[in-house]
C-alpha cells in the first residue's frame, strides 16, 4: 500500500479495505487529496459487531473516565490544528478561515463540551398510592435515569468533516454508547484523523469505528445491521426518508438532521444592513452548502427593491476563488456533479420567470468547481427554485404585503429547519417567530446559541441535538420506582 491510502478503523485495528480504494478530490484544484478505503458490507458489519462487543464495558465505564478521553482527544486535535485544517480544506474546499474556525475549531469545542459530566438521574416528586390490588398504601419514590442507547451509526455530511462528526461522536460516547461512523464519501479522511485522536486519547478498541465508501452499500450496511440500535444522520431529506424506513422496520432509534429552505422574513422596518449581511452568508459560508442558510428571502414590498439592490451589491463584493488565497470569501462547491446541479437550478429559475440579478454564470477560473453567488428576484411561491433545496450560493426573493402573508409564505414549505425574522419591532419579530413552523428562528441574526436545541419540523428532521439535547438524543429514559 502507498502512503496516501487510508485504512478502515475497525475494532481498534487499521484494516485494509476489501473493496479497494477511491480518490478523494480537492474541489478547488481537482487534484487528488488521497485514496479513501471502500469497505465491504461484511467489514461494516464487523465494525458494528466490534462496537457491540465494546458496549458492555464502555457503557459501565464511569462518566468521568469517558469525559477524560474526549478531553484528551480535544488536546490532540488542538496540537495538530493546522495540518488537520489543511486536510479539511483540501477535502471540502472550505476557505482557510472556515476550515480552521468552523470546521476543526468547532470540532475541538464539541469534544470539550461533552467532556463536561452532566447528571443523568432526575428525581421525581413522590406519589402517595392508596391501598389496592397492587399492595398496601405507600409513598412511591421515582427516578428518571438516562441510559445509553447502544451501538450508534453516525452518518455524516460533507459540508463540515469535523464539526458534524464531532457533534455526533462526542455526545454519543459521553453517554456511554459506542459508534460506527460512516463519513461522507467526498471528505472522509478528516474523520479518520478524528479516530486516530480518539485512539491516542485512550478510547478502547471497538468504541469508535470508521468505515467509508463511495458506494451506497456501505451506508446501507451501517443502517440495516442487526447490531445497530440507533442511526444519527445528517444529509438530504430523500436519503433520510430511506434510512427512516429501515429504522422503522427494526425499531431503531433515529436522529435526523435533514434539508432546509430557510425563510428570511424582512419587514419594512428592519435594519437592512443587518439583514443583507445575514442573508449574504448564504453566498459565502460553505458556498451556500449549509442547511441552515437563509436562502428564501421574503421581503415586505416597501423595502423590496432596496433589499434586492443591496444584496446584489453585497454579492458583487465577494471574492470567488482559491480558498487558500487570502481574501477569498467564496470557495468551490464540493464536486463537479454538485456544481452542475446548482447551475441547473439557476437555469430552471430563468425558465420559471425569475430574474437573475447577479451571478448565474460560471466564474472564469481554470479549474475547480465554482459557482458564482447568484440572486434570483421576481420569484413566486410556486417556483421550484423557491420550494426546493438548492444547497449552493443561490438566494431567491419573494415579496409580501403584510404580516399574515409573510407567515403564510414562510410556512408554505416542506421544510422547517431554521427561519429568520428581521424587524425593528422586537415584539412583532418574536410574535412572528412563534408562528413559524421551524425548529429554530433567528431574530435579527443568523447567529447560533450552541446550547439551544437544534433540529427541524416537517421534512427537515426528527429529534434534537446540540448542548444537553444531544445527550438526551443519544440516550433512553429508564424509570426506577421504589416504596418510600
From TrEMBL:
Superkingdom of origin: Bacteria
UniProt domain Aldehyde dehydrogenase: residue ranges: 14-480
Keyword Metal-binding on entry: no
CDD domains: ALDH_CddD-AldA-like
Keywords: Oxidoreductase
GO molecular function: oxidoreductase activity, acting on the aldehyde or oxo group of donors, NAD or NADP as acceptor
Family (UniProt): Belongs to the aldehyde dehydrogenase family.
Listed name of the protein: Aldehyde dehydrogenase
